[in-house]
Amino acid sequence: MKRKEVLIVGQGLAGTLLAFELHLAGVKLCIVNNPQKSTATRVAAGMVNPLVFKRMTKSWMVDDLLPVMKNRYSDLEELLGERFYFDLPMIKPLSEQEAELWFERKADEKFAPFIQDICETSPVENVFQSHAYGIVKGSGYLKTRIFLDAAKRFFQKNEMLIEADFPANQGNFENHIFRDIQFDKIVFCEGHYLKTQPLFDFVRLQPAKGEVLQIYAPDLSENYIINRRVFVLPIGDHRFKVGSTYEWKDLSVKPTEEGKNSIVDRLKDLIHVDFELEQHWAGVRPTVIDRRPVLGKHPVFGHLNLFNGLGTKGVMLAPYFAKEMKALITDDNYAINNEVDLARFL
Ligand SMILES: Cc1cc2nc3c(=O)[nH]c(=O)nc-3n(C[C@H](O)[C@H](O)[C@H](O)COP(=O)(O)OP(=O)(O)OC[C@H]3O[C@@H](n4cnc5c(N)ncnc54)[C@H](O)[C@@H]3O)c2cc1C
């Protein structure tokens, strides 16, 4: 029988980033992914925004997360021979009150890496008329499907990927065997399917369905992401991703008329150019009740691990916390930050 050190369940952002982290450290691993199950990563707009506009604060841990994120995607672009991460400034139309707060933040050196400017007129034509326009730097986006597909080809070439379902009720967790391979450790990176996983039913997941559109708008500038009640993210060829919605009751991955109309109404308020609707997707974000990732070892079966809770900001969180997860798996004495520790739910 073959033996490997780690089995990763799920090839979304969490499983993919963790697999690279372990592979590059020389750990022998396999990923099992069920392509019939929905993958939030595939429908995500992939946007990275270092600020939280509601209170004009920095996004949680952004100073630590952003450099790790940029390095990791850039290294993987080289390894996989494909481009998938793009820096792009963002425009935020500001009310008079918001502009005052923006000026305050601009004067604060802690915000210097993220606030580029404040302008009286919009750098982009045909957008919502506002008192002023803040320009964010450090923002950008990941082409999530291109990234997952390039990673998948790499894993297949290196015989690291099994396309199958990993059953939730595996009887013998002591000595784990899957498809004739014996694994020392398993890491569950199942996204919102965590809720079907009895082993970790104590984690307080609060999944949120989201919908995203793709539009074709030949008269809209592609130089900025625009963000006011809805984001408009240029992805090339005059195509833009637009989103999104939040829904906590209907957790199906079916796009809805209400979702589409809600996005289109906000979009028409923001951009004043003709557009064609081309695509409409829905997915479920694996969000945890306290909006933090969740990492750690199972309290009884120490060789079973969890890496989940990437919520609304998976693109920025996954590279940094994949490193943390690797440290936890490879070093039995590694102490994880309490804020993300699975033990907070025990
Ligand atoms: C509409 C929408 C828009 C979003 N926009 C953004 C954005 O702009 N920026 C951002 O940073 N984040 C965004 N997100 C959030 C982001 O998508 C998530 O944080 C991230 O993709 C979660 O990754 P994950 O690997 O945890 O889960 P997933 O991507 O869902 O991956 C889980 C994988 O596990 C597999 N799986 C599950 N159970 C099993 C099993 N038993 N056996 C085998 N395989 C299994 C599934 O098939 C799936 O491939 C958005 C999400 C949605 C829904």
CATH architecture of the largest domain: 3-Layer(bba) Sandwich
Main sheet properties: 8 strands, mixed
- Count the beta strands: 20
- Run of helices and strands: EHEHEEEHEEHEEEHEEEEEEEHEEEH
* Average pLDDT over all residues: 95
Helix content: 25-40%
Structure annotation, total helices: 7
Weakly predicted, low-confidence segments: none
What would you say about this model in short?
The protein is α+β, with helices and mostly antiparallel strands. It has helices at residues 13-24, 40-43, 62-80, 96-107, 144-157, 257-270, 314-330; strands at 2-9, 29-33, 47-48, 51-52, 57-58, 85-87, 90-94, 115-119, 132-136, 140-142, 161-163, 177-178, 181-188, 208-216, 225-227, 231-236, 239-243, 276-285, 294-297, 304-308. Helix 1 (13-24) packs across helix 7 and helix 3 packs across helix 7 (314-330).
What does this structure look like?
This protein is α+β, with helices and mostly antiparallel strands. The chain has two domains: 2-43 and 145-205 and 289-345, FAD/NAD(P)-binding domain; 85-138 and 206-285, D-Amino Acid Oxidase, Chain A, domain 2 (2-Layer Sandwich). Helices cover 27% and strands 27% of the residues. The chain contains seven helices and 20 strands. The protein has helices spanning 13-24, 40-43, 62-80, 96-107, 144-157, 257-270, 314-330; strands at 2-9, 29-33, 47-48, 51-52, 57-58, 85-87, 90-94, 115-119, 132-136, 140-142, 161-163, 177-178, 181-188, 208-216, 225-227, 231-236, 239-243, 276-285, 294-297, 304-308. Strands 8-9-7-15-16-17-14-18 form an eight-stranded mixed β-sheet. Strands 1, 2, 11, 12, 13, 19 and 20 form a seven-stranded mixed β-sheet that branches. Strands 3-10-6 form a three-stranded antiparallel β-sheet, covered by helices on one side. Helix 1 crosses helix 7 and helix 3 crosses helix 7. The longest helix has 19 residues, at 62-80. Residues 9-15, 32-34, 37, 39-41, 43-47, 165-166, 189-191, 193, 210-212, 243-244, 283-286, 308, 310-316 line the site of flavin-adenine dinucleotide.
